[in-house]
Amino acid sequence: MSAVQNYSDYARQRIVALQPGFEKSEASRSTLIRDIVLMQIGIDPACRSRNIPAVIPRNLIRFWHDHSALPDDVAACMSTWERLGEQGFGVRTYDDDSADRYIRDRQGEREVTAFSRCAHPAMRSDYFRLCALVTEGGLYVDCDDVLLNDGWTRLFEDDRLKLQPLCYDIPAGGMMQNSDIWQTDLPSGERNFYVNNDPIAAPPGHPVLQHALCRATELLLEGNGRPEIQATTGPGNLTTVLAAHAHALLLRGDPLDFSLIRDWDAIAEMRWDLSYRQDERNWRNVYGC
Description:
Blueprint: H1 3-16, H2 26-40, E1 59-63, H3 72-79, E2 90-94, H4 96-106, H5 109-116, H6 121-136, E3 138-140, E4 145-147, E5 161-169, E6 174-175, H7 178-181, E7 191-202, H8 207-222, H9 229-232, H10 235-252, E8 258-260, H11 264-267, E9 268-270, H12 283-287
Parallel strand pairs: 1-2, 1-3, 5-8
Antiparallel strand pairs: 3-7, 4-9, 5-6, 5-7
Keywords: Transferase
């Protein structure tokens, strides 16, 4: 048995051994995401398809809260994706008003109310992408992502949900390089592994996104003070639901119906030097994160 196979088997065993409710612990969620990464290491990309026809529709979904005040530098980022229209994509960008209409037309009163309680544009973006992808599927990307090449085609090769893993190195006080996340021999240290909610490629109605939307809705409707964005609608919410979902699948002996994107930073890059990041449109400046 190869060393890579050993890593995968041990990772699977650790996940199956977790107790119900483990996903409420950030440390346990982090360990599971790391184990999912280890399970994927060494898998030949040509063998990842489950021989099921791809059902992720060619929809490109984006959100910017106010189209009338779209910054030029953000518009420049968005323009790099327009060529997907030539590949048969429906390219749509929603704002607060059109997102509200979309949710009213396709979801219920609970979701409409929950969306209205998203106090910051980043939270409304988080919530809306779940609504749109649950309803119709496709590819969601943030408006500050710049498309670099045609690697996006790999996200549409099968029907699995595709998510990007991230890792925060706690002692270093910063994010790890994407390539380092996939090392089997990471040096010891405190780290928080999780999944991002940008990008998301999904078929319509994927159970992880359905549960993430339901959980975010419930948290918003509870109305307890000012909800924390990451945990309520953002990556924290998505990671919590994904962890419980993966655990349930592996307990039953079922294959995973999602995969982690290994090389998103080679496909697209987030631009950090944008004007909106200096003011209240950047949620980190409002919420102190």
